[in-house]
């Protein structure tokens, strides 16, 4: 219906399942801003996900509430702790060539 790729759909379903399991199988209609913030903060702090991963989880939850449950989330100002960008340290590989 929204023309998302199958991979996006599968990813969103996975994040929604994790959200529900995290909150001990409560129905998403019974959860609002506080529960979303708890889940996203847990991802950043305990699971140490990247900011991109956390944003994907957040997008999946927004999709769930807006499109599936038809709950307006515009006035919900989600204040979850944001995941930190990791510094990428380049790995240098040295090869030694045999001396002839």
Account of the 3D structure:
- The structure is a single chain.
- The protein has a domain at 6-68: DNA polymerase, domain 1.
- Helix 1 packs across helix 3 and helix 2 runs antiparallel to helix 3 (51-68).
- It is mainly alpha-helical.
- The N and C termini lie far apart (66 Å).
- It has 3 helices and no strands.
- The mean pLDDT is 86.
- The radius of gyration is 19 Å and the shape is elongated.
Question: What are the salient characteristics of this protein?
Answer:
100 residues; mainly alpha; DNA polymerase, domain 1
Topology at a glance:
Layout: H1 6-22, H2 33-45, H3 51-68
Rounded Rg = 19 Å
Q: Measure the end-to-end span.
A: 66 Å
Taking the sheet with the most strands, its summary is:
none
Helicity level, as a percent range? 40-55%
Oligomer: single chain
What's this model, at a glance?
The protein has 100 residues and is an all-alpha fold. It has three helices and no strands. Helices cover 48% and strands 0% of the residues.
């Amino acid at each position: 219906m929204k023309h998302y790729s199958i991979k996006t759909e599968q990813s969103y379903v996975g994040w929604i399942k994790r959200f529900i399991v995290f909150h001990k199988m409560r129905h998403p209609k019974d959860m609002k801003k506080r529960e979303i913030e708890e889940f996203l903060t847990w991802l950043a702090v305990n699971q140490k996900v990247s900011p991109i991963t956390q944003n994907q989880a957040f997008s999946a939850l927004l999709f769930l509430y807006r499109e599936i449950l038809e709950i307006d989330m515009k006035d919900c100002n989600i204040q979850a702790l944001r995941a930190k960008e990791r510094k990428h340290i380049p790995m240098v590989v040295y090869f030694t060539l045999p001396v002839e």
